[in-house]
Write a structure and sequence with these properties.
Layout (H helix, E strand, L loop, with lengths): L1 H9 L3 H18 L16 E6 L10 H10 L12 E6 L6 H9 L6 H6 L1 E4 L9 H7 L3
Length: 142
């Protein structure tokens, strides 16, 4: 199946690729309201708390290092902190390097990183096993 997708993509002309890209761009603008703004530069969203549980459940054994990398991939969700009334609880199996978190907070457009940091809570059961994060949370002790 994956090879078919690659083949389909390679068979597209430059114009078709540009048209598909434009269609995707238009969808993103429409979806913007679901991540915080009614429209670009519009009214701020109401106060809310977002809980990010970066868990993956698969039927095969996945090395813990890959699971940790997967959890860090979701740091793009920190961009939701552009909204001044949004708080976020971000849960990972192992603590994320504070320098990585600070990097993301410093590249938030139009936001003072210290303000975003105050609204972000990082939570970790400190469990580096290959068990899913959801299972770790369900079995974690207080």
């Amino acid at each position: 199946m994956h090879k078919d997708l690659i083949h389909d993509h390679l068979a597209l002309s430059a114009d078709e690729v540009a048209q598909r890209f434009e269609a995707l761009q238009n969808k993103l603008e429409q979806m913007w309201r679901f991540i915080g703004w009614g429209h670009l530069g519009g009214e701020a969203q109401e106060a809310n708390t977002i809980v990010v549980v970066t868990s993956i459940s698969v039927d095969v054994e996945v090395p813990a290092s890959l699971l940790h990398a997967y959890e860090e991939r979701f740091l793009f969700l920190l961009f939701l902190l552009r909204q001044p009334s949004i708080r976020m609880i971000y849960i990972t199996s192992q603590p994320i390097d504070p320098h990585i978190v600070e990097y993301y907070l410093h590249i938030l457009p139009g936001v003072v990183s210290s303000s975003a940091r105050k609204r972000l809570r990082l939570v970790s059961p400190r469990d580096g096993s290959s068990q899913s994060l959801t299972a770790k949370l369900l079995h974690a002790r207080d």
